[in-house]
Design a protein that fits this description.
Elements (H helix, E strand, L loop, with lengths): L6 E3 L6 E3 L3 E6 L5 E4 L7 E6 L2 H10 L1 H6 L5 H15 L1
């Protein structure tokens, strides 16, 4: 039997992709927004394609704000962009 591949929607571009291809952004119990590289941490997750474009789109269309039902400060997006650059490098 073939296993069902978990699909997630990118909060940036809205495309559906398999969970493995995506970055998980996590809202912790303390309302901190972090990148969850393992995908296993506890908290509310939102998914982004592993591309800076999608992060920029999510920033513009407030995709993460909608997912987490809270406003997200600019510093958080800047920190995420920095983390993204480290991953892509």
């Amino acid at each position: 039997m073939n296993k069902k591949i978990p699909m997630r929607q990118c909060v940036g571009c809205g495309e559906m992709k398999s969970k493995k291809e995506m970055m998980r952004v996590l809202k912790t119990a303390e309302d901190a927004i972090v990148l969850d590289v393992t995908g296993k941490k506890n908290g509310r997750g939102a998914y982004l394609c592993v591309s800076e474009d999608c992060l920029k789109k999510a920033r513009k269309n407030k995709g993460l704000e909608r997912s987490f039902k809270m406003s997200i400060p600019t510093e958080v997006y800047d920190a995420l962009e920095k983390e993204f650059e480290d991953i892509e490098a």
